[in-house]
Amino acid sequence: MMKTILPYIVLACQLFLLRPGALSAELEVTCVSPIHPILIRNEHGPIVKVVVDVPSGMNIEVNSLEFSLEGTDAFADIKSLSLYWTGAADGFSSEHQFGDSETPMTKIAFRGKRTLNSGPNTFWLDCKLTETADLSHHVAAVCTQINTNSDAISVKDESPGKRHRIGVALRRHQDDGVHTYRIPALGTTAKGTLLCVYDMRRRMGRDLQEDIDIGLSRSTDGGQSWEPVKVIMEMGEFGGLPQELNGCSDPGLIIDRQTGEIFCFALWMNGKPEKHQWVDDGSEPGFEIGKTAQFMMVSSKDDGLTWSTPVNMTRKLKQESWWLLAPAPQQGIQLPDGTLVMPVQGRTGREPLATFATVMISKDHGVTWTVGNPGYAGGNECQAVMLSDKSIMLNIRNDHERYRAVVVSKDLGQTWEAHATSRNTLIEPNCNGSLLRVNYEESEKEKHVLLFANPHTQKGRTHHTIQVSFDEGKTWPSSHHLLLDEGPGAGYPSLTQIDAEHVGIVYEGSQSHLMFERFTLRELLMPATRAGADSSSK
């Protein structure tokens, strides 16, 4: 009896699957827009992930996917759109293209043939930008329908309203033959030029000791375009040693707005193969080249176009008993009276927690410098801002626990007090962060806020976020957390105020070694949900 009716059962199942709307009821299809910027210069910019979950035994052939680009600011920003199938793999890959690339319009469809596997099948909508894409614009897309050989399937949008910012892939793997770009410090000159200095790790990604030079990218149009890379500090084959034993790393930048002079500091190691400046005897007490890492400086008097030869400042700044003194890889600040304040870091001993953070001060426009007393022990990379009472707040990478350390000095770094938020408020995964005071006018009144950027998590360097404080760092309301990039990256953000209306950031995110984005101050001051981004809470 069963053998007799079995063909009819199979036929009934097939007819059921061919009914209009039947697959929509059987299949789960979702789309999501991951949070990260789409970058000028990148070949690929994944903007939508579509997942079709196919039950075991079901035979599905997809012949088209339809998308809407409503919410995109300007189609002229987009060079092309492509669709890729990655099977069960969750991450983006361009190995298997589905259909032809398309030019942008409000409604687009990709047509091809793909028999789906049982389980999850992932498609990625990929966007390539033009070289002139506007940094103030956004790209938006959503999958609206999947068409199969038997039915049209509706799609559940799990990130409604999400839009991707446009940024710049400032430095990428193997740009100019360099393996890795890291440790950016961003600043704005007195003429409004953007300068970004960073490590050029030529052979591999590791820190000192290695073949590393200090590079510079320069922009005169607010970050929309950048000049070719310029090497501004390198020590060649000093002492007859190869370049991999003469590396320079961790640049810090400070700009004298009264004189226009720009100073870039970095750390030089000579010899010490396979050592690391922050570990054991990678740097030692004293001043001797080849024993202790050297505190170096170059300067520019023409808005970053040309730079001096490196000057060794180690004997003038470092205490002989210290194992290390290094610039903090961030931008320094200038006080209203012209005093230059540059964050620095160091080691007082051999142990892992024998580290400190402080500032160095110049009251004569960089002719001479003095180093303050350690403001925090067991921390290192740091950023300084001036508060309304003219005191200096230092925000510090903390090696004790996964909260930022914060200290305040009222005497230019001679003495320090812990801030109420120290080691209990701003979370971190143990990574460099950036703190910036932004001045602005509202209703003809002068105001200011503090901006803080870092990977906003205690686990890994993901969820790269900007936070805003309206009360000088006492609170950082979640309503003003702007999530830039949820993906993994090395972090190390650096903020700068570009002009009266804009703020810029360079950070090591998920889409490029160094990524630049620009924001309006108005956008940062409004609640994040209104600004078109989620608050970050991880």
Tell me the number of structural domains. 4
User: What is the name of the CATH architecture of the largest domain?
Assistant: Sandwich
Number of strands: 37
Global structural class: mainly beta
CATH class call of the largest domain: Mainly Beta
Strand content: 35-45%
Comma- or semicolon-separated keywords:
538 residues; mainly beta; Immunoglobulin-like; Neuraminidase; 4 domains; six-stranded mixed beta sheet; six-stranded antiparallel beta sheet; 4 helices; 37 strands; globular; disordered C terminus
3D architecture notes:
This protein has 4 domains: 2-166, Immunoglobulin-like, CATH 2.60.40.1290; 178-319, Neuraminidase (6 Propeller); 332-381 and 388-425; 431-538, no CATH class. It is built from 4 helices and 37 strands. The longest helix is centred in the N-terminal third of the chain and has 17 residues, at 2-18. The protein is globular.
Secondary structure: elements and pairs:
Elements: H1 2-18, H2 22-26, E1 28-32, E2 38-40, E3 46-54, E4 61-68, E5 78-87, E6 107-115, E7 119-129, E8 138-139, E9 142-148, E10 152-154, E11 156-157, E12 164-171, E13 180-188, E14 194-201, E15 212-219, E16 230-233, E17 248-255, E18 262-268, E19 294-300, E20 311-312, H3 314-317, E21 324-327, E22 333-334, E23 340-347, E24 355-362, E25 370-371, E26 376-377, E27 379-386, E28 392-398, E29 405-409, E30 417-418, E31 434-442, E32 445-455, E33 464-469, E34 481-485, E35 491-497, E36 502-508, E37 514-520, H4 521-525
Parallel strand pairs: 1-11, 2-12
Antiparallel strand pairs: 1-3, 3-7, 4-6, 4-9, 5-7, 8-12, 9-10, 12-37, 13-14, 14-15, 15-16, 17-18, 18-19, 19-20, 21-23, 22-23, 23-24, 24-25, 24-26, 27-28, 28-29, 29-30, 31-32, 32-33, 33-34, 35-36, 36-37
